[in-house]
Known about the structure:
Layout: H1 2-21, H2 29-42, H3 44-64, H4 68-72, H5 78-90, H6 94-110, H7 112-120, H8 129-138, H9 159-169, H10 177-190, H11 192-211, H12 216-221, H13 226-235, H14 240-257, H15 267-280
Helix pairs in contact: 1-2, 2-3, 2-10, 3-5, 3-6, 5-6, 5-8, 6-8, 9-10, 9-11, 10-11, 11-13, 11-14, 13-14, 13-15, 14-15
Amino acid sequence: MHAASNPTESAALRTLLRSLGQIVLQPNAFTGACLVAAWLVYDLRLACAALTGAIAANIGAVLAGYDEADTLDGLHGFNGALAGLAAFTFIADSATAGAVAILAGFATAWGLAPWSRWLRSRGLSVYSSPCLIVTWLWLPLVERGTAPLADAHVWTFARIPDGLFAGLAQTGFASGAVAGVLVLAGIAASSWRLAAWALAGACMTSAVHLLLGASLVSFDAGLLGFNGALTALALADAGWVAVLGGIALVMGLQHVTGHDGWPAMTAPFVAATWTVQALTRRRITPRGAKRRGMPTRRLGRAGRS
């Protein structure tokens, strides 16, 4: 009896980990495990949040009768994980955050199919748009409890790698150099080339934002680089011109949205990548196929947050 249940348990674990790996656009269980390690290093609450949201979303996908292959590839769970992370990031009370994470995770999966079809009909990819929509719907109803950023210390060149790696960690709402290295290792396990693009995207966006007057506190927290890293990941297979164009767009969008006080999260990444897709009229599908409701040809090897 125990032996017979092992394959099912193993498949469920792989599905869960792939859902987490899809946060950085990789349908890879080891990538997901690296993200779990990053959350554990940074904050245990975030690991619980991501797992809660991903499980809720996958259950919603099963109840909705979505394609099992897509569920196993993590396509129906990653937005739920992001929704759970957002809940625990913006809600201080753990009980309330847990309830919101379950409901929001379930909602991202339940509404994914019609939203995905609508985007596909326009040649666009889903990425983390379901998480953004669901989070923005409940956000005005709760009192936000995000912790203030620590004061910056004197600038030194030694802080540069810490801030860049923190930008990679922020793709999963975490921060810190160690967490960022773990995220980068997870991406590299799927593709060294994509890992290089992610790091380059974080470098370029962080550098430009600093030149435009962004605070060192934001750089240290990784808030300047994560949208650039995701954009580079999503557009890597479209060529360097598309990547640079997408990064230029995401920098402008992030600079504009950073002044209104509303949590933009990964919205600059999603909007910039959609713009590149629309302008190039190319169909980009990340490695793993049908990723995040993407159209049939290739854009990058993934599709996120």
